[in-house]
Amino acid sequence: MSTSCLAQCGMTAVQCRYGCLPVAGRMHGCESARLLNPQVAQQKQEKPAVPVDPNVREAQRSLESSLGVKVEIHDRKGKGKIILKYGSLEDFDRIVEALAAK
Predict the structure, then answer these.
(1) Which end of the chain lies in a sparser environment, N or C, as judged by fewer CB atoms within 10 Å?
(2) Spacing of C-alpha 35 from chain mean position
């Protein structure tokens, strides 16, 4: 195990498919592999865009408007989760009160 591998990419030389060897004394093996093979860099950066159902998008906007907080809805084939992101204890109390009232 190379300590420079752990410091550079967080993997041991055995785990890293590029060997984690320093190149020219400065660039790390993983970094040079990403530069030489742009597809590797793109694979980590690009996630395919998942189309959002217009009804789900409208429900998200409606909840954000009525609750006053950021809302994320993850829907997959009619199942999923609703995430309410609050920024303060007052927001939290307001959300709990609104949900309990209905």
Answers:
(1) C
(2) 23
